[in-house]
Design brief:
A hairpin with a 7-residue loop joins strand 10 and strand 11. With about 280 residues, the chain is of the alpha+beta class. It has one domain: q2cbj1_9rhob like domain (Jelly Rolls, Sandwich), CATH 2.60.120. It starts with a helix and ends with a helix.
Length: about 280
């Protein structure tokens, strides 16, 4: 379950690490089987796409957006679903986090980010610490983002774009953009992005479903619209050291959880008891 020394060096240098197909087809099938019901819930943690998309083929020309229930992100999943509550303790997912941050950590956020076919909207250029610091009062950029691809992610269905090494530049400055999309985001100005991209380039994180991503809190990233006919869903767990906990608590719990109980690691087979759920779907 541990990262190799080469992987640790890549993460430190690039600010992100791709672990191809770390989760098995059976594990991913289980996780995928739980998502549709969660997206249908009338829950405040389900954020609907703001910008309208367009249906192609049957019904072409009809605009759809908020009223279509196209979910952009579904948050607080471990509090809403037992499978995801088990997943956040899985050693495949969190053992690398403990390796990078060998201290007690708490669950800061749990979500699935969705880019539905033909309608998934942009995530502007940003770095997560801007939100964590400005909105939640997190003192230092020590949080880790741990992702699992629930769909195959290609260059065509809205992959994450990273600026390699941008985490080493510290904070990039940010302003609150509450107009572009339905999820307010602390975004980085274009001139800053241009400078960093000209220095370091852009890399798309792609891979088969079950692939895992790890990245740092000051890594500059974003993602384009999904114009393809293929959905793109990515699970995300953010862990933060208890010693670096939030100092502000005005945002809803599902955006930054209040429970500072240190996360613990489950057994490697912790998802097996749920497999029959996926097979019945």
């Amino acid at each position: 379950m541990k990262l190799s020394q080469s992987q640790v060096k890549t993460l430190a240098s690039q600010g992100f690490l791709v672990l191809p197909e770390r989760f098995s087809e059976k594990e991913v099938a289980l996780l995928r089987s739980q998502v549709p019901a969660l997206l249908k819930e009338n829950h405040p943690g389900n954020v609907i796409e703001k910008e309208p998309g367009w249906k192609f083929g049957e019904g072409a020309g009809k605009s759809w957006g908020k009223d279509s229930d196209v979910v952009r992100t579904a948050m607080g999943l471990h509090l809403r679903n037992e499978v995801f509550n088990t997943l956040v303790h899985h050693p495949k997912l969190i053992a690398p986090g403990f390796q990078v941050r060998p201290e007690p950590m708490y669950i800061q956020q749990v979500k699935v980010n969705v880019k539905a076919a033909f309608s998934g909207s942009v995530w502007q250029w940003h770095y997560d610490f801007a939100t964590h610091h400005k909105e939640d009062g997190v003192p230092r950029p020590l949080a880790l983002n741990l992702h699992i691809f629930l769909d195959d992610v290609s260059h065509y269905n809205g992959p994450l774009y990273f600026v390699p090494g941008s985490h080493r530049h510290g904070e990039h400055g940010a302003r609150l953009d509450d107009q572009t999309t339905s999820y307010p985001l602390w975004v980085v100005e274009n001139d800053v992005v241009e400078t960093l991209v000209n220095q370091n380039g852009i890399q798309a994180a792609t891979g088969k479903k079950g692939t895992m991503l790890i990245f740092y809190d000051t890594l500059l990233h974003g993602s384009p619209n999904n114009m393809s006919p293929w959905d793109r869903s990515i699970f995300s767990l953010i862990l933060n050291p208890v010693s670096n906990a939030y100092q502000k608590s005005h945002r809803p719990d599902y955006k930054h959880h209040r429970d500072l109980t240190p996360i613990t690691m489950a057994e490697p087979n912790c998802l097996e008891s749920f497999y029959e759920l996926a097979e019945s779907k």
